[in-house]
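Researcher: Please predict.
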Amino acid sequence: MSALDVARKDFKGARRSRSLWTVATLLGAVTALIAFGYQGYQLSPRETVVRLFSTMGLLLAMLLPVVALVASYMAIAGERESGGVKFLLGLPNTRRDVFLGKLLSRLAVVAAGVTFMFATASAVAVARHGVLPAGVVVGMLAISLAYAAVFVAIAVALSSALAERSRAIAAAIGSYFLLVILYVVPGIGVSTVAQWVHTTMLGAEPNLDLYNAVTYTSPFIAYRKAVNLVLPAGMEQRVLQRAGENSELPAYLGDEVALAVFAVWLVVPLAIGYLRFEGADLE
């Protein structure tokens, strides 16, 4: 066998998961309802659909990590807890085959779910408004797939380092809290903490660009910034704070940097997770 064989076998098992089908169906229904009910005020049909997908981006920023984590947190931990990993390694497969195969299968499952959501929203938008800005929709789909892949990578990495279902669940919930919730809830966010440490503990002068840079380390913020890359001029979302109404963000806080943030979150967790799995005692 090979990594592709492992992926094929795992994909067949994952697609029969009731929880995944339930999540995908619910999210498909939610996106369809949003697409049907959204109506821009004094906007052309095309502008309305663009605003619709921009609004959907805010929802997907919160929900796509849930889809990816639910689909992937037991990818390897479940095999280790049940003892199935010994069977996989005895076929023969290397640990690299198992790791890559599980990663590929979960990426495929999540990609199918995300594509289904966009297809549903697109179909309703065309039926409701008669237009579909293909460039915006395809661009947002690509960015959403990259964002979801980040959380698949994180979940598979955590799953490969853990041998118990309970610990895998706790790690998945913890990663969602640390990488998404802390950037949403006002008053306890990462930017607030960074500002407190910088000004109160270190006694330095406030530096808004520094706090923005710390905030930008989150894939959640990176996704919201990346969406601006495909939106028409004048429809971009303001994600990071500015010192003044017309002040410009420095280049390292630009929308393009979001792609580099995605790359780091894809590579680093997978490298660490693979090394942990390679050295783990599976007895």
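Model: The chain is about 70% helix and 0% strand.
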